[in-house]
């Protein structure tokens, strides 16, 4: 192959002076884009795939310019979540309350008394106020928080049961997603998993028979994202607590979602209600900050003072600790729960879950009227590995994608500006207004219109 085309490639400094590249981007960024483009062109030429026409100075400059523009669109962007899935893990799970965002903003943009008691001038714990709040809201004697519930599980098992056995029902050896599988979590914690029962049936006697001198704890895990149906039996927390007391073994209750209000009022059942779990006598209760609680990513641990202390003394505590912005946001979120009506009104996760068809219909109609879509009753799910089997009654705007195809329309929406995430069902694209703010409706309509107009991508 002739290496003539390689020699035709312009030098970096030549491209830098090209009118197309007199942009506002910093010098280093323009140079990096030019180098990246030239490297790619060189590779193409070596494989013999670039036609001569594209190697003019102008064409290359234009490609670099496009690369710079594309680069701006990389990284995190706001998206409009029209899926109706409130806790969409891929879209960041919980949306924080305004007061939580203010708290995080204030903690991040200035100094604060993170580990200082202003009254005594002495060093204090960053968890002190959080502990007070957790006591107040859950009734537990003590509490603390780490980076997420996965971390809470690892550190609790490590602190209480490293080198010892923890008894778990085979029906609760769950995978949450990612690499969170109970047997693996148990292994990294250093605790030894002692499985009892079968997938569908575990009795109290199964736990009792497995107890021996190596046993350090009994553990319940909420099967957050799946449900056992039919001929099944599991041991209620209260019975396990009685057994634990009899043998002086702590009961660890991994609840997952972290409901601090009773979700039965939304018609949703089966989520452990944290204060109730504490009251039933679980020695440690673990839950997520950004699932049903509606706060930032965090793993909350509440329970016996001695056990919480043991956990906080574990060297992993330092590795798993919350940063100041998250801690501030978590505290602010928890404060809202001091008054249930305030939590309902101000925690977006609760507000969205609680929206009724009557509330959603006029909003869907408003959007549909502008887009020529059809308003239909549909259901949505909470998401985020919570309440997988109970649907939220909703109202959606259904768009028929005539001449485009529903997959293509959904793709265009996803690639649009702003990006819109929608559901596909029965050949139509569904926009669920439950997870769209009223202030986003105009942008949503605009995004859909341009997606419908846009010619097919090559
Ligand atoms: C979701 C979940 C976890 C993990 O929580 P993260 O906060 O996502 O780390 C652990 N246990 C249960 C039962 C869960 O549902």
What can you tell me about this protein's structure?
- This protein has 19 helices and 15 strands.
- The chain has 458 residues and is α/β, with parallel strands linked by helices.
- The chain has a seven-stranded mixed β-sheet with strand order 2-10-9-8-7-3-6, with helices on both faces. A four-stranded antiparallel β-sheet has the order 11-12-15-14. A two-stranded parallel sheet has the order 1-13.
- Helix 3 crosses helix 4 and helix 5 (98-109) packs antiparallel against helix 14.
- The longest helix has 20 residues, at 27-46.
- The protein is globular, with a radius of gyration of 27 Å.
- It binds pyridoxal-5'-phosphate.
- Pyridoxal-5'-phosphate (PLP) is lined by residues 148-150, 153, 176, 180, 221-222, 224, 254, 256, 288, 299, 385.
